[in-house]
Amino acid sequence: MQEKKKIDLDAELKKCKTMEDLTGKNGLVQRLIGKMVEKMLAEEMEEHLGYKKHEKKGYLSGNSRNGTNPKHVKSSFGEMDISVPRDRNGTFEPRVIKKRQTSISSFDQKVISMYAKGMTTRDIQEHILEIYGADISPTMISHITEKVLSVANEWQSRPLESIYLAAFFDAIHYKVREDGKVVTKAAYTCLGITNEGKKEVLGIWVGESEGAKFWLSVFSELKNRGVKDIFVACVDGLKGLPQAIKEVFPNTEVQLCIIHLIRHSMKYIPHKYIKEFMQDLKNVYRAPSLKTAENNLEKFQSRWIKRYPFAVNPWVKNWENVKTFFQFPEPIRKLIYTTNAVESLHRQFRKVSKTRSAFPNDGALFKLLFLAIRDITKKWTQPIHGWREAVSHFAILYGERLNVN
Question: Nearest Cα to 204, choosing from 217, 189, 216?
Answer without folding.
Answer: 189
